[in-house]
Amino acid sequence: MAPRSQQLALAEGLARQNHIQPAVEACYQALANNERDPLVHCLLADLMLYGDFYDEAINSASRAIEIDPDCSPAYLALGLGYDRRGGMWDQSILVWHELAEVEPDLVTAHVQLGEAFAAAAFDDEAIDAWRAALELDPAEARAMYNLAVAALKKEGMSTALPGIRKAGELDPTQDDLFFELAGVVDDGNPAPDPADVPHERDAMITAAGALAFEDDYFAAAELIRGVLEDNPDDPEALGLSAYLYLKQEAVNEAMACALRALTISTRTPTAVYTLGVAFSKRPGLNRNAARVFSALAKTVSGHPMPHVLYAESLLGLQRYSQAADAYRTAISLDPTCVRARFGLAMVLLTEGRYAESMWEIRRAAYHDTRHQGLFWQLYDEYAEGRS
C-alpha cells in the first residue's frame, strides 16, 4: 500500500483534535489526489457524522466499503449514519450484521444491531443481540440499558428499574462522581504501596482513595481501618468506608457507615452519595433515596450524575414528569451523558412518545461510540493492517 498522503495525515491530525472544518477540507484535498483511498472516505464519513450530515456520511462510508469491503471503520460510520438518519432500519440491520462478521469480537456491533432490530420492531431479535453482546462482555453497560428498555416495553417500570440500576453500576461515570466528591484526582501516577504509607491520617485517607480508584478495595479498606482505629468518628473515613462496602455488595454495612458519618457531620458529600445508593438498592426505600439524591443534586448542581441518580429514584416512585425534568437537567449539563439519555428514553416510552424515545437512544448510541473512541480504534487497526 502507498504511504498516507500529506493531506490525509493532515486531516487525521486535525480530526483527532476536533478541528472539524479544516479536517474536512484536508480530506477533499486528499480525494483530489487519490479518489480510491478508503481511509479518506471513511474519515470523511466520520467527520460528516460529527456535523450531523447523515446523507453525506452514508455516501462517503458506502464509497469506502465499495473500494474495500473489509473497511471496518466505514461500516461503523455507515451504520451510525443510517441509525441517526432514521427510517432506514433494513439497511442498518444489514450493516451491523456485516460489521459483526468483519469484527466478530466487537461488542458494540452487537449492541447496535440490537438497537436497529428494536427500531424495526423486531424485539425478540434485539434482545438476542444484546444478550450476545453481554456474553462477549458482561460489563457492557449499554446492552444492559437496552435490556432495561425492552423490559419496560414488555413488563413495566418495576421490572425495568433494576436493569437500569445494574447498567448504571457498570457505567464508570457513577464512580467518577464519588471520586470527585472525595477529592480523588487521577494524576496519572500509580497508587502507593500501602506498606509505604506513613501512619498519618491525611496520608492514609489520600492513599486509600487512590487505591479505591484503582479498584484495590482490600488495600484501601486496610488503610481506612487504620484511620478509624485512631478516630472512629472521622466522617471522611466513614464515607470512604461506606463506598468500599458498596463495591462489595455489603449494603447494610455501607448504610450504617454513611449514616454514622452524617450523624457526625452533615457536610460529608461522600456519605450522602453512598447513603443514597444504599437506599436505592433496597426495595421500598425509593422515597428515602429520592430525598437523599435531591439534596445531593442541590449541593453538586453542576454535575450531571446527581440529577441522573435523583431521576432514577423518581422512576421508582412513578413520578415520571419530575424524572424527565431531572434527566433533562443532566443532559443540559452534559449532552453526552448516555445514562441520562437512556433514562429519558424510558420516561418518554411511559408517555407513549415512541419516536422521541428512539431519538434519545440513537443519541446515546452516538455519544457512547464517541466515549469509547471506537471509530479511531477501528481506523487505526484497519490502517495498520493495510500497511
Q: Can you describe this structure?
A:
The protein is mostly helical. The protein folds into two domains: 148 residues, Alpha Horseshoe (Serine Threonine Protein Phosphatase 5, Tetratricopeptide repeat); 201 residues, Alpha Horseshoe (Serine Threonine Protein Phosphatase 5, Tetratricopeptide repeat). It contains 22 helices and no strands. Helix 1 runs antiparallel to helix 2. The relative contact order is 0.08. The mean pLDDT is 90.
Low-confidence spans: pLDDT under 50, at least 5 residues? none
Average pLDDT for all residues: 90
Number of domains: 2
* Assigned CATH class of the largest domain: Mainly Alpha
Structural class by secondary-structure content:
mainly alpha
What letter string, H or E per element, gives the SSE order? HHHHHHHHHHHHHHHHHHHHHH
Shape: globular
How are the SSEs placed, and which strands pair?
Blueprint: H1 6-16, H2 20-33, H3 38-50, H4 54-67, H5 72-85, H6 89-102, H7 107-119, H8 123-136, H9 141-155, H10 157-170, H11 172-182, H12 201-213, H13 217-230, H14 235-247, H15 251-264, H16 269-280, H17 286-299, H18 304-316, H19 320-333, H20 338-350, H21 354-372, H22 374-386
Helix pairs in contact: 1-2, 1-3, 2-3, 3-4, 3-5, 4-5, 5-6, 5-22, 6-7, 7-8, 7-21, 8-9, 9-10, 9-20, 11-16, 12-13, 12-14, 13-14, 14-15, 14-16, 15-16, 16-17, 17-18, 18-19, 18-20, 19-20, 20-21
